[in-house]
Amino acid sequence: MKVEEFVDPYVGESWGSLGARILTSGNQISVTLGYPAAGMQAQLATRLAEFLGVDDIDLQLGFSAGGGAGFGQVKHLILVSSGKGGVGKSTTAVNLALALDAEGAKVGLLDADIYGPSQGMMLGVAEGRRPDIKDGKFFEPIRAHGLKAMSMSFMTTDKTPMVWRGPMASGALQQILGQTLWGDLDYLIIDMPPGTGDIQLTLSQKAPVSGAVIVTTPQDIALLDAMKGIEMFAKVDIPVLGILENMSVHECTNCGHISHLFGADGGQRVADDLSVPLLGKLPLAMSIREQADGGQPTVKVEPDSQISGLYRDAARNMAAQLWGRKAAAVSAPTISMVDD
Fold first, then answer.
1. What is the band of 334 on the pLDDT scale with cuts at 50, 70, 90?
2. In the CATH hierarchy, which fold is given to the domain comprising 74-329?
3. pTM metric for this prediction
């Protein structure tokens, strides 16, 4: 067995076919993956040793996002979207961004919900704090919990409604995206407004988006809207990296009883029907809501908890799916027509 033949646990393809950079020297193995996986290094070392049939290896795990379709020094734009509101999309977006950061990536977070921005509160940014302006036209992103962040909530107060028509909101979003000095980022996570409206169309047409993630709950009405979101991204040629099922299960804090309050396995059914991956299942837990509302998201305040582990696994899976798509695009055969 060779290291190149090891099958990646997320993509289901061999590291060699995915283009992983591999160097070996005795029992020392250096592998550079196309997704960040710092939290999985020990587990991968054990799996790889079993695969190679050896007792132990010294695995050095690296990460390179490679050349993406982004802009400037931003390699990949990933949209976190939902077909309807109330499914925990913004909470999921901020925890995914923090999870990627914890795994070793350079990450930014853009709050694209112009009408109802919430990332300022979730990141614990004090009300009234404004981004610095450089050269009279560029925004310096606000740093929070290791992320570079921008949100309309940094420009207004919580009590200021955005009474704008669609083109005005789309224009504001383009300005925030394009005039923010993001610097060198592996991933810019974009927290989208719910639905399939102007903001979604603006980003699909004006920004080099690498992929989208759909957040849903297991209940039927949410799943129907999630399917609409997936179909919308298909129409505008944005690949859906996968589905995240939020509020999947509730565990009683008193007796430990498990309840599927919104149904069971709905996300898996939609994923199977539309041939997209199910990136993970996240529980319905009061702590997730309380921590996000308090500006201390779960992945940051409880990094070693089971819930943080689920977010980090979903983030690795999401980034790995993007790597797999890039590798498939590179290896796809080309057909040329010539006249004899």
1. very low
2. Rossmann fold (3.40.50)
3. 0.90
